[in-house]
Amino acid sequence: MENHYNPKDVEAKWQSFWQEQQTFRASEDRSKKKYYLLEMFPYPSGRIHMGHVRNYAIGDVAARFKRMQGFNVLHPMGWDAFGMPAENAAIEHGTHPAKWTYENIDSMRRQLEKIGLSYDWKREFATCDADYYRWEQLVFLKMFEKGLAYKKGSSVNWCDDCQTVLANEQVEDGCCWRCHNPVEQKELEQWFFKITDYADELLECADNLSGWPERVLAMQRNWIGKSYGCEIVFTVADSSQQIKVFTTRPDTLFGATFMSLAPEHPLVETLVTEEQRAAVSQFMEEVAGQDKTARISGDLEKKGVFTGSYCLNPLTGQKIPVFLANFVLMDYGTGAVMAVPAHDQRDFEFARKYGLSLQVVIQPEGEDFVAEQLTEAYTGSGVLVNSGQFDGLDNEAAKEKIAEYLDSRGEGRKTVNYRLRDWGVSRQRYWGTPIPIIYCDSCGAVPVPEKDLPVKLPMDVELTGEGGSPLAKHQEFMQVACPKCGQPARRESDTFDTFVESSWYFARYACPDYQDGPLDKTAANYWLPVDQYIGGIEHAVMHLLYARFYTKILRDLGMIDVDEPFTNLLTQGMVCKETQRCSEHGWLYPEQVVDGKCVLCQRPVSFGRTEKMSKSKKNVIDPNQLIEQYGADTARLFSLFAAPPEKDLEWNEQGVEGCSRFLSRVWRAVSDNLDAIAAADMATEVSGEAAELKRKIHQTIKKVSEDIDGRFHFNTAIAAVMELVNAIYAFKSTANNPGIMREALETVVRLLNPFVPHICEELWQQLGHTDGIEAAGWRAGMTRRWLPMK
RNA sequence: GCGAGAGUGGCGGAAUUGGUAGACGCGCUGGUCUUAGGAACCAGUGUCUUUCGACGUGGGGGUUCGAGUCCCCCCUCUCGCACCA
Questions:
Q1: What is the predicted pLDDT for the residue at A613?
Q2: pLDDT of residue A403
Q3: A85 preceded by cis ω (within 30°)?
Q4: What is the DSSP letter of A787?
Q5: Quick one: which H or E segment has residue A352?
């Protein structure tokens, strides 16, 4: 047989067809309903990996499906191009980050093109283009004007390996999210975005994001960490100084028998008495010596030290000792905790350790707690006792009453507290967006005038990797006249966190060439919000929270009219593969294992676990090789068929073979029947076997449509088409029913098109159609009479 | 500890609202065609049982004519957060 399936030729043919025809260009066609589909854009590392293939294949199914359904689909692609790897590569190989980045972009674009993704490449941009970041600088100036961007000195997370500051969201288990080095604390002046102003709105809107996985919303809620409580003022004994605490349990205030401060609390210095100074210093040294990871890892013993000072319980008037405690955190609440040992487990342990007194103030029904006999704190509900005028109240009611009472005496007020901190955006790195600020000795921090934007990143910079902002050493860049007074001044040498760029790129795709501002409001309002966003779960509280925040900023600056950037979110699982390990030689490549033994030492190999593909585990499949061997359609099909999109996908070579076999089967089904159905017309009356096939055809159309649309059950959609193909092979009366066979074949080709577009375009053409397959549409066209062949 | 989710054949996974559990694929078994088969096609493949049949969705109870699915209790695993006051 002559007509064999040759993926390489077919794919090259249709990829150039799409390019020539500009099949996937999008415009603001208001006669159709818009559908904005977006996958998280990649960092241009230079090589695509299977995670990219899966992510973009998932998105491409939705894009092609929606287009066939008649939607006006926007499906853009670009590059998250600023960041550390470019700088590191520059230091290592002596190339310039810009050269490295743009070369990688070219190479990755070529690799992506081989997958046959239906992007509107005309809208492509890289975030390191001055045409992009200039608008980010402009937005910053507007934020600065409104007080939403500000500079302050504070203790910040420092990664010594990356030589830069990190936002709280970028610290995982006390380590840098990128390089996993332990993070230190450092006192630095930094720029911040006031995300805390939006904490409530970010929380409230989360309740309406019904198209988001609950898991992601829960993580964001947790991260924002809103808790209702009370701020209470304790006056220091024999002093006018005051210590503020935040508590969610004002009902236990009568049981507060001591006070715990964070070792970093600003009042520590003035509270420490002469007798206690030595003990406190020793304690402080001990705390400072503990590295942050150990402190975070949990089971740290509760320790503290008496300051020598006392403060007054505002309700009892009792003098209570002020301690420093290692478990009190300066960056949560006020850095001071009123300790109620009878009703808080940590305070209980602390009190027992240091012989401090306990007072029971909550008594549940049927119990009679006595302070001396408690073996653990009672944290449940009950009725107030030992609480003066509040005795007998239910503790929930008492929270209100005591808060009101304190408020009336100016000693406290109801308040809410958030775990969320403002977003620190300064980075002491070169390859990023320069922060458009000028420091003048007489005028202070002066914004760069809008007309002087962009503040371009200079290209002739020396990168040594020895620390300090590289831009600070660039005299020409740094020296500038103050825009206000004209005196010599210096530029800000820090750059933005690269998460700032990714916080609004989705909006810029609506108008990538717009020259009069960050966004063409008409275009942005037409396309936004993104109808379907697809990407990894790892950005649940970084990118996805920042992008929501930034969208609200752009809205409040009057640049767009949407509240939320992404209506529906799909978090796809990782691509995993079995690892193999030798006790002597570590991780092994598959070809280093023969008969379950290590080829280097003949020791038996331990059956590795299935883990995320990574170079270090030697379990990576290179998509380029895969495409070379099987073709892009097979690579796409496997990554869509082997698991539902949101689950982890286990790589399986035989599964890939199976998908390749299926495509050959589809190809053969068409070519074997081409002659028989050449003159076929639609069969209106069918019976017996033909009627059964007809039913199967239409059941499959329904099933595939429902599985793709909104549910993203691609694996079952593909399974349904496989069933139809099986039915085609089982169908024996084509000679009598050429029409029904044609209908069956055309249905298969059309239903598979979103998944494996190259082979489908080709077969569609072989079936006698001259327009591209997307023009045929999805459902309406399915039952329509086909065009006669030639 | 708090929050989210998951436990189904040898494996990946189906079963939209309670209605034939195991679709589809991989693997495996047998067959056809072949010089050959690691191609293609056909048949079979949850477990136990010679058969009839019985049993089967982590374990235990319950609701129901009917439960993988709903309710209660327990076990295990994954992910996220965590001295959060």
A1: 87
A2: 95
A3: no
A4: P
A5: helix A345-354
Q: Which of A's residues 502-521 have CB atoms within 7 A of nucleic strand B?
A: none
- For chain A, the helix, strand and coil percentages under 3-state DSSP, each to the nearest 5: 40, 20, 40
Protein-nucleic contacts, chain A 274-333 to strand B, CB < 7 Å: 295-296, 298, 300-302, 326-330, 332-333
The tokens for A387 are 């609480």
The SS3 of residue A175 is strand
C1' of nucleotide B42: residue with nearest CA: A730
- Interatomic distance A222 CA / B2 C1' (Å): 10
- C1' of B47 to CA of A755 (Å): 37
Q: Any atom of strand B under 7 A from CB of A703?
A: yes
In the numeric block, which tokens belong to residue A285?
């040294």
Minimum-distance nucleotide, CA of A327 to C1': B83
Q: Side chain identity at A648, as an amino acid letter?
A: D
Strand locations in A471-537, DSSP E? 479-481, 488-491, 495-496, 530-536
CA of A650 to C1' of B45 (A): 24
Neighbours of A153 (CB within 10 A): 9
What pLDDT is stored for residue A699 in this prediction?
92
A336 sits in which H/E element:
strand A336-339
Q: Is the CB of A650 under 7 A from strand B?
A: yes
Distance A726 CA to B30 C1' (A): 21
- The per-residue pLDDT for A184 is 85
pLDDT confidence of residue A291 = 54
Q: Which amino acid is at A416?
A: V
What Å value separates CA A621 and C1' B19?
A: 44
Phi then psi for A140, rounded to 5 degrees?
A: -60, -45
Residues 6+ apart with CB under 8 A from A285: none
Q: Please give the angle made by the CA atoms of A367, A370 and A374, to the nearest 5 degrees.
A: 90
Nearest nucleotide by C1' from A338 CA? B85
CA of A647 to C1' of B26 (A): 18
Chain B bases having any atom below 7 Å from a protein CB:
3-5, 12-16, 23-27, 39-43, 79-85
**Closest residue, by C-alpha, to the C1' of B80:** A219
Range 706-745, chain A: CB under 7 Å to any strand B atom = 706-707, 711, 713, 715-716, 718-719, 722-723, 726, 729-730
**pLDDT at position A787, please?**
37
Structure tokens at A642: 């082997």
Which residues is A325 bridged to in the sheet? A304
Give mean pLDDT in consecutive 10-residue pieces for chain A, a chain of 790 residues: 80 96 94 96 95 96 96 97 92 92 97 97 98 98 98 89 88 84 87 96 92 92 92 94 95 96 93 95 83 54 92 95 93 94 93 94 88 88 93 93 95 93 94 97 96 95 81 94 96 96 98 97 97 92 95 98 96 88 83 80 76 85 94 96 92 92 94 85 74 91 92 94 94 87 93 97 94 83 39
User: Which of the nucleotides lies closest to A650 (Cα–C1')?
Assistant: B12
CB A225 within 8 A of CB A418: yes
Stated as kind and residue range, the H or E segment containing A427 is strand A426-427
Cα atoms in the 13 Å half-sphere on the side-chain side of A601? 10
Q: What is the pTM of this model?
A: 0.94
Q: What is the dihedral of CA A613, A619, A623, A627, to 10 degrees?
A: -140
How many alpha carbons fall within 13 Å on the CB side of residue A736?
A: 10
